[in-house]
Amino acid sequence: MIARTSLLGTVAFVLATTLATATLAAETKDATPGVNPPAATATAGITKEQAVDMALKAHPGKVTKAYKDRKNGKETWEVKIKGDDGKKWEVYYDMKTGDLVAEEGD
């Protein structure tokens, strides 16, 4: 009787360990420590407000318009500024990366 109980206990332990390991492996299959998953990176980007702030730091003045646009084949935030320097500026920031795509002043 003791051997049978011991055998059942061992089988239960092995089964539980196997299931726990399989579950953990499935949950962490694509996870790399310290690396963001592609879905999180793909949705990262800058807001219109962030684009306006960056444009005003580069060209102080008054924002007259800020909206989505396309420049050089990229989706951008276009920020139009009436600059304190007397010029009118159009500044374009990549919506996904926040990189400056172009700026034009007259």
List the helices and strands and how they pair.
Layout: H1 2-28, H2 38-43, H3 48-58, E1 61-71, E2 74-83, E3 88-94, E4 100-105
Antiparallel strand pairs: 1-2, 2-3, 3-4
Oligomer: single chain
Main-sheet strand order equals 1-2-3-4
Kindly state the percentage of residues in helix: 40-55%
Instruction: Write down how many β-strands occur, each being a DSSP E stretch of 2 or more residues.
Output: 4
The main sheet comes to: 4 strands, antiparallel
Q: Could you list the spans in which at least 5 consecutive residues all have pLDDT below 50?
A: 21-42
Structural class: alpha+beta
Could you report the average pLDDT, rounded to the nearest whole number? 77
Overall shape: it is: elongated
- One letter per element, helices H and strands E, the order comes to HHHEEEE
The share of residues in extended strands comes to 25-35%
From the N-terminal CA to the C-terminal CA, the straight-line distance is 94 Å
Q: Radius of gyration from the CA trace?
A: 28 Å
Tally the helices: what do you get?
3
